[in-house]
């Protein structure tokens, strides 16, 4: 509605200015006549009518999509038609009003002079109109491309999370399977914990981010499930200030790091160890770390499905502003560090 209103304001203002200029020139040369007022109103009305019809035709047949030379031919033809209509209105009117002032007879030179006089403002109108149309088309294409890119990224994110969930469930079921014959009661407890984890996973499936507090709750449920298998070989500690628990993180992102800590750290140590989970704010970023016993001997931890998907998800959500690093913490420990923008609801 605002664009339509602006269009009509510019239409009237532009043609009013052009016709007023023509009327002033006639008045300076031939003196004031009330007939100029009728010609003035007639020219404004006719110019607005012609250019608006031109606009409707170009939109209906989508001239802006034509090849360049075809577009030029159509516009030149339209320019000639509109100019000749204005000529047909003004030429008889001028001779009727200024008959006593004309010292020359009507000839081709006079007709061409009139024609070119009308073509100039019409050609300027066409250029402005098509410049605006191409600008709008470019903005619309960019908007559609942005929307398409966001849709693709959201789809990729859902696919990546869908890959992670079966991977997580597979590991959890393996933990429970080992207890079925050895300790049925613990296996039953493990199934209940797995059910709770899956319910939590389903609730966050459609969310891009969740509060860190929810992610920590999921991690503790997961560690409690793995505790059934590893018993006294697995301990954990969470060191996060309460105010940082409101920060938003991608679902299951830290859980994947904890899962890798068990797979590549705890499971390879006879004595097991403690997994330390901590997070703090540094500037405008949240730094979350998972520290576990072990060492980095191969690139296996970085090329696993979980880590690769986590890195891909971070890139989709935060671009280059997010990082996921895996490096030695000291001689006997490894640290996985997640760095993402610090966002709170």
UniProtKB/TrEMBL annotation:
Domain named Signal transduction histidine kinase internal region: residues: 156-234
SUPFAM superfamilies: ATPase domain of HSP90 chaperone/DNA topoisomerase II/histidine kinase
Residues forming coiled coils: 134-165
InterPro entries given in the database record: Bact_2-comp_sensor_kinase (IPR050640), HATPase_C_sf (IPR036890), Sig_transdc_His_kin_internal (IPR010559)
UniProt KW keywords: Coiled coil, Kinase, Membrane, Transferase, Transmembrane, Transmembrane helix
Gene Ontology CC entries for this record: membrane
A matching Pfam family: His_kinase
The UniProt record lists the keyword Ligase: no
Gene3D superfamilies the record matches: Histidine kinase-like ATPase, C-terminal domain
Membrane-spanning ranges: 7-28, 34-51, 72-91, 111-132
MF GO annotations: phosphorelay sensor kinase activity
PANTHER family: SENSOR HISTIDINE KINASE YPDA
Protein name as annotated: Sensor histidine kinase
Source organism of the structure: Aquirufa rosea
